[in-house]
Specification:
heterotrimer, A alpha+beta (157), B alpha+beta (788), C alpha+beta (290), B: 788 residues, alpha+beta, Aldehyde Oxidoreductase, domain 3, Aldehyde Oxidoreductase, domain 4, six-stranded mixed beta sheet, 18 helices, disordered N terminus, disordered C terminus, C: 290 residues, Uridine Diphospho-n-acetylenolpyruvylglucosamine Reductase, domain 2, Uridine Diphospho-n-acetylenolpyruvylglucosamine Reductase, domain 3, Enolase-like, domain 1, 3 domains, five-stranded antiparallel beta sheet, 13 helices, globular
Chain lengths: 157, 788, 290
């Protein structure tokens, strides 16, 4: 079937089987490899993208189900050559090591800050609790999100 | 202040050079590799733990319109590839020919146009199995009449793999005979766990029949070792094999071995003439690739009444699964387990390790630790707490009393290790200070009076990392020395080529910093090339915290060669004797005339330019080094864990975790701290939840992240770190390696804390993983039930 | 990565169309909403529907939480995140937010729906216990019209519900009653894990005594989630530690847990008692404060 999804603001169309998972549609049909996957059971969250602004596990959503919706991926975080404060925060606070969970973590952070610009550490912990990081022990991810909350304006200015 | 804003020119808190690509989603992992005409492979796996294969019918799968080939063990047998050697001088089936020996074992390989079709076709393969009795419990593996798992091996009539010992039984017995106190532990298991990096294992093989060249993109921590092993196994000429480890999504030891899927992808590419990608799913990762631990340990400790520990003895039964694929240096079938003497000055020590086959997945990888060091550290730190309990001495005080003293280094242990340096009391004291240990004990007493169960657990570990000296250590015959090549281009920008491979440790940053520190050039002027065997010198790879101890040393040495050569060039340029030159960071200058000098950058241009070089000095500013470490390095650390236990539900909340690490000189403290955080989370996960479990038929019960639980952000505390710095005396920059220390030291701290919390219930030990159910059972029975 | 077997895909644009599609396509058709129960089963190929009917386009029709006529009505396509965020539900039934905070994880809650959770009927699912304790009813629609089914009758067994092949759950109705309090207690091994055991409790006071009670447990019974003997033990008595202990003991006695990776049966039975007791205490405090 033909599937059209708005990805990072651009309508993108590709031919895919109905069973195509959104993560595979993004990676294989559209060639956007920034979204990863790490499990089969919706536990790890490496595949998190934003659908209509909300973090969603793209391994547990059919691409067909995203038709007509807005999907935002890691490739859409940087805008007009400016890094998102979340991206900057992850670099500043050493919020990533192997980088595999990072796209999903950053997108969740972006959604959190959009709805709650000044979250507490506990709110950040809850927000990322559906996503596994095997490298950082989470502490620096939390610091990275907080950095973005505290420096958001100066980065985007 | 731990600021990251300043730009260090050498060691210091430098932001990572690899981050800009990762934060843009431009990391390049194996599954991101897409080649023209690429096909996709999928592995059919055994549903049974032990069964004879009576027939395999692949005809329906072959007829699937998108299937290009189906490969079985019989097909591989014809090429002599059905079996491959393991890293422990055993053999492992690539695709089963005679029997399946664990649930999840590789039986057939389907190659199709896309992954969805390949997986559909797996369902079309019909395999007839004749079930056989299984060996699940290693305690029964050597029973008379136990089914023989490895009947493929000529004359094999039991499931025994090896017996190994270290230390002196005689000396140990003598001390035990005259000690005031002797204590025998119950059987203490270190459960089977899995490293579970977030990226699973996989490969893309591209064999070009015209040139005979095989390119293999692979999730490997040891690309050079893999290349050589493929050459030895498959008979491919080694210069025609290029192994590329692109960005790796975590390894933790899981990506050291060669797995059947990699070999299938290579064969698949040769058979189809197309590139073939194979990526395992999470279930395949957890059920078939390298597990870790799975030791059943029984310890004995001899001490004086006043708490002086005199001797330790440990007997281990090691479950190696169906094939002995343990990754460790050849001479050490139980890895470095004989570091179980820990951080203590003993009169005698002795250990035995017996390895057996069972119908479980092969592995025994060093999961975020040097080989078997985590098992050893857990056992000794549990034993010390049991002794403290027996003698009614504070566990910290008991450790302090028995530490190897600063002035005793270098210290030769009773099992033969030569510890390089340490100041254990200082490290311990720093942890006590950060924790506010005395206050915590006061708080605990008050809480106990109110019926609240708070526990404080301590551990102190010494790790042995950086394998290792060629005279002592090899893997599959390959010595464990690492090369490094450094080229300084005419404009003073440098390219460093190394054999080790980051899986997130930040080598592109820290190795540039080593060069920067040695040569005084900015780290951003140093490009680090790694992960491609055609581009880098030989070396054994990244595991066992060996990158900094071995390749870091090679990098320092190659930088020093450049510095020495720059001196000769400067002497020619400045027309003075080399002996008249003095080094300051980045520059040789004339003694007594500091204005007159030449920077490394100037020397680089001169070396490539028209300057007449002294006799015997070749042009250019390049150098190579191979570093054979004279000894291993011995990082250590003191950890304190504070837990609150809900006795009604058995739930454990880790409230605080204090980790003071001494890894010698820190190249990039920001990265060191990140490594420590990560290892702590994994150690806490192992202590509380991670467990690869089996039922009595050998079915794996932990085949997904729904049942193999790893910590989320909610289960870990806000880590509190500290440091002491005792440089390694034999390492060129005094560094010791740190990536794994915290995974070694943290499990006993957590378990000791839980046992401490449960002391009012008479609990002396709780087996890992310390689940709510186990804690509740411990409270009911005073200890845990015998392990399943 | 594991992937589903092939299927035909259709989108429903109304409840009536979804039901018509179910009737036309027969028993090999399945509805998919959030997909967080069904798609993982399909990846494991434990579920291989020939037709998948996507009802996400019904969001405007079936995603709502409305207070009206002495009821809170919850549309079947209401997402967990909306249930968690609902002030109406939090005000009337604190149990709902307490349970929702412990269901799966935030991205899963962004997709998973009330209807999907109830229709999956996993014995360890939480909302079934919550709604059973609150005395809620379900509304099931087929081509012949709607029928109202109590939570007890809705939940026919593990993975079995009263919803027929060509029917769909469209709404959950929760009665609003005064002088009530409710609470949820759950033990799990890790964030996002299914319950090892959980207990949902609601109490309504009639003067100084308990006038009505709902006690429903999760993960400790293959079938039957309400503990009526425990409820009866509270009615007509003032809320007290003795009464709670008695009711909790009955709840534990009446459950039938299985030993598995989450723990042995005796531990889960203990949790049934411990968690019910704790939930009763907190529910009673809330009822007394209301």
């Amino acid at each position: 079937m033909q599937i059209t999804i708005t990805v990072n603001g651009e309508p993108r169309t590709a031919e895919a089987e109905p069973r195509t998972l959104l993560v595979h549609f993004l990676r294989d049909n559209l060639g956007m490899k920034g979204t990863h996957w790490g499990c089969d059971t919706s536990n790890c969250g490496a595949c998190v993208v934003l659908v209509d602004g909300e973090p969603v596990k793209s391994c547990t959503m059919l691409a067909a189900m995203a038709e007509g919706h807005e999907v935002r991926t890691v490739e859409g975080l940087e805008r007009d050559g400016h890094l998102d404060p979340v991206q900057q925060g992850f670099m500043e606070e050493h919020g990533l090591q192997c980088g595999f969970c990072t796209p999903g973590m950053m997108l969740t952070a972006r959604a959190l800050l959009d709805s709650n610009p000044n979250p507490t550490d506990d709110e950040i912990r809850v927000a990322i609790s559906g996503q596994i990081c095997r490298c950082t022990g989470y502490k620096n991810i939390i610091k990275s999100v907080r950095w973005a909350a505290e420096h958001g304006e100066e980065v985007t200015a | 202040m731990a600021g990251t804003t300043e730009r260090p020119t050498g060691f210091g808190r430098l932001k990572r050079k690899e981050d800009p690509r990762f934060i843009r989603g431009q990391g390049h992992y194996v599954d991101d590799v897409t080649l023209p005409g690429m096909l996709h492979g999928a592995v059919l796996r055994s549903p049974l733990a032990h069964a004879r294969i009576t027939s395999i019918d692949t005809s329906a799968a072959q007829q699937h319109p998108k299937v290009r080939a189906v490969i079985t063990g019989k097909d591989l047998e014809a090429q002599g590839l059905a079996w491959m050697p393991t890293l422990s001088a055993d053999t492992q089936a690539v695709l089963a020919t005679d029997k399946v020996r664990f649930q999840g074992q590789e039986v057939a390989f389907v190659i199709a146009d896309d992954e969805y079709a390949a997986r559909d076709a797996l369902e079309l393969i019909d395999v007839d199995y004749e079930p056989l009795p299984v060996v699940v419990d290693p305690r029964t593996a050597l029973d008379a009449g136990a089914p023989v798992i490895r009947d493929d091996k000529d004359g094999k009539s039991d499931n025994h793999i090896f017996d190994w010992e270290a230390g002196s039984e005689e000396e140990c017995d003598r001390v035990f005979e005259d000690a005031d106190v002797t204590l025998v532990t119950q059987e203490i298991p270190f459960q089977r766990v899995h490293p579970a990096p977030l990226e699973t294992c996989g490969a893309v093989a591209d064999y070009d029949a015209v040139t005979g060249k095989l390119r293999l993109w692979c999730t490997t921590q040891a690309p050079h070792a893999h290349r050589t092993l493929y050459a030895l196994v498959a008979g491919l000429p080694e210069h025609k094999i290029q192994v590329i480890a692109p960005d790796i999504g975590g390894g933790f030891g899981n990506k050291v071995p060669i797995y059947p899927g990699y070999v299938c992808a290579i064969v698949g590419s040769i058979v189809t003439g197309k590139p073939v990608k194979w990526m395992e799913d999470r279930t395949e990762n957890l059920t078939s690739t390298g597990f870790a631990r799975d030791y059943l340990m029984r310890g004995r400790i001899a001490a004086d009444r006043d708490g002086k520990i005199r001797a330790l003895r440990v007997d281990v039964l090691a479950d190696h699964g169906a094939f002995n694929a343990t990754a460790q240096p050849s001479k050490y079938p139980a890895g470095f387990f004989h570091i179980f003497t820990g951080s203590y000055d003993l009169e005698a020590a002795y250990c035995t390790v017996k390895g057996v086959y069972t119908n479980k997945a092969p592995g025994g990888v060093a999961y975020r630790c040097s080989f078997r060091v985590t098992e050893a550290a857990y056992l000794v730190e549990r034993m010390v707490d049991l002794l403290a309990d027996e003698l009614e001495i504070d566990p910290v005080e008991l450790r302090m009393k028995n530490f190897i003293k600063k002035e005793q280094f270098p210290y030769t242990t009773r099992t033969g290790w030569v510890y390089d340096s340490g100041d254990y009391a200082a490290t311990m004291n720093e942890a006590l200070r950060i924790a506010g240990y005395d206050e915590l004990r006061k708080e605990q007493a008050e809480k106990r009076a109110r019926g609240e169960y708070m526990g404080i657990g301590c551990s102190f570990f010494t790790e042995t990392v950086g394998a290792g000296p060629k005279k002592d250590m090899d893997i599959a015959g390959l010595g464990m020395a690492d090369g490094a090549e450094l080229r300084v281009h005419p404009t003073g920008k440098a390219v460093l080529r190394i054999s080790v491979k980051t899986q997130g440790q930040g080598h592109e940053t820290t190795f540039a910093q080593i060069v920067a520190e040695e040569l005084g050039i900015p780290p951003e002027d140093v490009e680090v090339v790694h992960g491609d065997t055609d581009q880098t010198p030989f070396g054994l790879g990244t595991y066992g915290s060996r990158s900094t101890p071995v390749s870091g040393a090679a990098t320092a040495m190659v930088s020093r060669k450049i510095r020495d050569k720059a001196r000769l060039i400067a002497s020619a340029a400045l027309e003075v004797s080399p002996d008249d030159l003095e080094w300051e960071r980045g520059r040789w200058f004339v003694k007594g005339d500091p204005e007159k000098g030449q920077t490394i950058q100037e020397a680089a241009f001169a070396a490539h330019g028209t300057l007449t070089l002294p006799e015997g000095v070749e042009g250019h500013l390049d150098a190579e080094a191979v570093y054979d470490p004279p000894n291993l390095t011995y990082p250590c650390g003191a950890y304190i864990c504070v837990v609150d236990v809900d006795p009604g539900t058995g739930e454990v909340k880790i409230r605080r975790f204090i980790a003071v690490d001494d890894c010698g000189v820190r190249i990039n403290p920001m990265i060191v701290e990140g490594q420590v955080h990560g290892g702590l989370a994994e150690g806490v996960g192992i202590a509380l939840m991670q467990h690869i479990a089996f039922d009595d038929q050998g079915n794996c019960l932990s085949g997904s992240f729904m049942d193999y639980l790893v910590p989320s952000s909610m289960e870990v505390p806000d880590w509190e770190l500290g440091e002491t710095v005792t440089p390694s005396p034999h390492h060129p920059i005094g560094a010791k390696g740190v990536g794994e220390s915290s995974n070694v030291g943290s499990p006993p701290a957590v378990v000791n804390a839980v046992v401490d919390a449960l002391e009012p219930f008479g609990v002396r030990h709780v087996d890992m993983p310390v689940t709510p159910a186990r804690v509740w059972e411990a409270i009911q029975h005073g200890t845990t039930r015998p392990p399943q | 990565m594991q992937v589903p077997a092939p299927f035909d895909y259709a989108r429903a644009s109304s409840v009536d169309e979804a039901i018509a599609l179910l009737e036309r396509l027969g028993p090999e058709a399945r509805l998919v909403a959030g997909g967080h129960s069904l798609l993982p089963m399909m990846k494991l190929r434990l579920a291989t529907p020939e037709h998948l009917i996507d009802i996400n386009p019904l969001e405007s029709e079936l995603n709502y939480i409305r207070e009206e006529g002495g009821l809170v009505r919850i549309g079947a396509l209401t997402r967990h995140r909306d249930v968690l965020a609902s002030e109406v539900l939090a005000r009337h039934y604190p149990i709902v937010r307490e349970a929702e905070e412990l269901i799966a994880d935030p991205p899963v809650r962004n997709r998973g729906t009330v209807g999907g959770a109830l229709c999956q009927a996993d014995p360890s699912e939480d909302l079934s216990a919550v709604f059973a304790a609150l005395g809620a009813v379900t509304v099931i629609r087929g081509s012949g019209g709607e029928r109202v089914v109590t939570m007890e009758d809705f939940h026919e067994g593990p993975y079995e519900t009263a919803v027929g092949d060509a029917e769909m759950l469209v709404e959950v109705r929760v009665p609003i009653r005064e002088h009530g309090g409710s609470a949820y207690e759950k033990v799990k091994r890790r964030t996002g894990d299914w319950a090892t055991a959980a207990s949902g409790v609601a109490l309504w006071l009639d003067g100084a005594n308990v006038g009505a009670a709902g006690i429903a447990l999760s993960a400790v019974n293959p079938t039957g989630i309400r503990s009526t003997r425990a409820e009866q033990a509270l009615i007509g008595r003032p809320p007290s530690e003795e009464a709670f202990a008695e009711a909790a003991a009955l709840a534990a006695e009446d459950c039938n847990p299985a030993t598995d990776q989450r723990g042995p049966a005796d531990y889960k039975r203990h949790l049934a008692q411990e968690l019910t007791h704790r939930a009763l205490r907190r529910a009673a405090e809330r009822a007394l404060a209301s």
